[in-house]
From TrEMBL:
Keyword Membrane: yes
Superkingdom of the organism of origin: Eukaryota
Domain NACHT: start-end pairs: 140-272
Name of this chain's protein: NLRC3 protein
Domain CARD: 1-62
InterPro entries per record: CARD (IPR001315), DEATH-like_dom_sf (IPR011029), LRR_dom_sf (IPR032675), NACHT-assoc (IPR029495), NACHT_NTPase (IPR007111), NLR (IPR051261), NLRP_HD2 (IPR041267), NOD1/2_WH (IPR041075)
GO biological process, one term: innate immune response
Length: 672
């Protein structure tokens, strides 16, 4: 172009400094725009005759890229407040999944690790897809993990919007954000149809499939995909135009058989992320939870018009170690903050005998539901329906959603579509109610409408309410949706069945459900929800037998696992805390020696997670035998400061402790 006198040497130099071809093209076009019709005509003739690829870039790709950028800015910039999202601009750089992340429920992961990961490295969001050093290459497959409610989808929105504004990763020409919710609506797709269906303005998908333009494909929410990914039996496909099953399409893209030149970014809850073989993942990152200052800012944002209330809520959260750990997750912090705020605002109207600060999970969710059911919501005016009519409508909605939640939980289904709603007899008009708006989120796209619960725990609490209510009159096993099973009569038989299934389940996905189910038998929860979702004092006839059954599950042997700890949590939810209090008192007085029976060992394992006595130092001096030490190993590895003086340990115990210190999950920093 310089030889044609269309550009000066200085202008050509500036254009050439741009990092990629499309940016060079943009620089040249910008310069020529002010040089009149002769320059543009000469440029067009020159490019048409000498460089068809460049001509395509200017006439086809460049307008397509601009349209794509405008579309993403419009969609992802909506309602995205970048101020509170500073936490998401730095991700933890992790080396694969730990054992607990692969096996345990999200909440059990947070409780065991105290919401902290033993990770020293982090990576800023703008460098997520860049090489880590000058001699390495950019990652092709990146996976970002995080528990439910930590902000994975928000992170994706933040990245896409920041990229679309041209602030990061300008070397990437196309960022293609897709959700597994969207992919659930297809049976078969080709790689090119996948792109055209989601982004109709991309009229030349071959420029992406052929690798002509650097592309980042984002697949958000693997845990919401309807079909498990099976990499061992993938049918190989290398034709971007060939339609195949959607799960096969995803595995072929990740394996590099399709869209070989594209980078792929998958987000997922940890347990679902282990579907992708570690050998295929080039970079794994994790979203960290809220720190102390961020939690305060988060609650201040929730209660903008009442900072005193925000401070009181934070005080109550900090006073309960277990709750404080859980509130490092923004989704859970919002639910807890709403519930405690509701309690504090209403406790002055009632006697202290009938109201207690919510401490257990079941109490927090009972207040949340009571707030939702009564229409007493911070963001909406109080509803004018008569209370009786409101109660009846609410019972109908909760009953319908509860059945959907329960059977969805059994099928590991967390996203629902209109056909699911109809299959469970849910009137779609009910979904427009304000109550549903407080429990369900709705996502409307051109080709589908998806519904999902505000947080996984909302689905689990609704499932527990459904099961509790149905178990009182059911004559068959409720876990068999068809109803074809051996007769099972009486609430207690159904309660035992739920607990046993939770204890036997390999994936641990029923653990929080049975905690909620146990909590519905507590006197405090009955007081809160009687008249709304429960019958007053009906728990009295079941509670003592349920406690005996749960205790029986702990008395078997010295094998302590996360299942054992979860059973102790169930006893806490049901408000039976005598065993835990006895062991905690002995820990304070350093008098545990000789009293560590199987049940007391279970209580001790539970206290290692939740007790303030263990916060600074876990003192287990002069009380452990080989068997007890062996049984507690899975819990000891999460103690930061562990004191084991005067236990007369021999070599076999030292070998056990040595094995613990080498585990990836191990958080022990100081050992005496």
């Amino acid at each position: 172009l310089r030889r044609l006198d269309l550009l000066t040497a200085e202008e050509a130099g500036r254009a050439q400094e741009a990092s990629s071809l499309p940016e060079q093209v943009r620089a040249v076009v910008d310069v020529l725009a002010g040089k009149g019709s002769y320059a543009s005509q000469s440029l067009q003739t020159f490019i048409e005759t000498t460089n068809s690829q460049l001509y395509l870039h200017i006439t086809v790709y460049e307008p397509m890229v601009q349209k794509h950028l405008e579309s993403l800015q419009s969609y992802y910039g909506n309602g995205l407040e970048t101020g509170p999202l500073q936490r998401l601009t730095n991700l933890l750089l992790v080396e694969g999944l730990t054992d607990i992340q692969q096996k345990e429920h999200d909440i059990l992961q947070i409780e065991a690790t105290k919401g902290l990961r033993n990770v020293s490295k982090s990576i800023p969001l703008e460098k997520l897809f860049l090489p880590l050093s000058k001699v390495s290459i950019p990652p092709r497959i990146s996976v970002t993990i995080g528990v439910a409610g930590i902000g994975k989808s928000t992170l994706v929105k933040l990245f896409v919007y920041t990229w679309a504004k041209g602030e990061i990763n300008r070397d990437i020409i196309f960022v293609l954000p897709l959700t597994f919710r969207e992919l659930n609506t297809y049976e078969k797709l080709s790689a090119e149809r996948l792109i055209c269906s989601a982004f109709p303005h991309i009229t030349e998908p071959n420029c992406i499939s052929a690798g002509a333009a650097r592309t980042l494909l984002i697949l958000d929410g693997l845990d919401e995909f309807k079909t498990p990914l099976d990499f061992s039996n993938t049918v190989v496909c290398t034709d971007p135009k060939k339609e195949i099953q959607v799960d096969n399409l995803i595995t072929n893209i990740i394996r590099g058989n399709l869209l070989q030149e594209a980078s792929v970014w998958v987000t997922s809850r940890p347990t679902a992320a282990c579907q992708i073989p570690g050998g295929l993942v080039d970079r794994m990152t994790e979203i960290r939870g809220l720190r102390a200052a961020e939690m305060k800012d988060f609650l201040d944002q929730m209660f903008l018009d009442n900072r005193d209330l925000s401070s009181q809520v934070l005080h109550h959260i900090r006073a309960n170690r277990s709750l404080h750990v859980m509130c490092t997750v923004p989704g859970f912090c919002w639910i807890s903050g709403s519930s405690i705020g509701y309690y504090l605002k209403n406790s002055t109207d009632q006697s202290q005998e009938t109201t207690v600060v919510p401490k257990t999970l079941s109490e927090i969710y009972s207040y949340y539901f009571k707030m939702a059911l009564s229409g007493n919501w911070p963001e909406k005016p109080r509803e004018t329906l008569r209370i009786e009519q409101a109660v009846n409508n609410s019972k109908k909605i909760v009953g319908s959603l509860g059945r959907l939640a329960f059977y969805g939980l059994l099928k590991k289904k967390y996203v629902f579509y209109e056909q699911d709603m109809k299959a469970y007899g849910i009137d779609l008009s009910l979904l427009q109610s304000s109550l549903c708006g407080r429990l369900l989120l709705k996502e409307e796209m051109q080709s589908f409408t998806a519904y999902y619960f505000f947080h996984l725990t909302i689905q689990e609490f609704l499932a527990a309410i459904y099961y509790y209510t149905a178990a009182k009159r059911a004559i068959f096993d409720l876990f068999t949706e068809s109803g074809m099973s051996w007769p099972k009569l009486g609430f207690l038989n159904h309660f035992k069945s739920a607990v046993q299934r939770s204890l036997q389940a390999e994936d641990r996905q029923l653990d929080i459900f049975v905690r909620f189910l146990s909590g519905l038998l507590s006197p405090q929860v009955n007081k809160l929800l009687s008249g709304w979702l429960l019958v007053k004092d009906e728990h009295d006839s079941f509670r003592s037998q349920a406690i005996s059954f749960l205790q029986g599950c702990l008395n078997t042997n010295y094998v302590i696992s996360s299942r054992t700890v979860n059973t102790m949590h169930c006893l806490y939810e049901i408000q039976h805390t005598e065993t835990a209090k006895t062991v905690e008192e002995a820990m304070k007085n350093e008098s545990l020696a000789g009293m560590l029976t199987p049940m007391n060992c279970s209580a001790l394992a539970y206290l290692l997670q939740v007790s303030d006595v263990c916060m600074e130092e876990t003192n287990l001096s002069n009380c452990l035998t080989y068997n007890v030490c062996k049984s507690l190993l899975s819990q000891l590895l999460f103690c930061h400061n562990l004191r084991l003086d005067n236990n007369q340990f021999k070599d076999n115990v030292m070998e056990l402790l040595g094995s613990v210190l080498s585990v990836k999950d191990c958080q022990i920093q100081k050992l005496r």
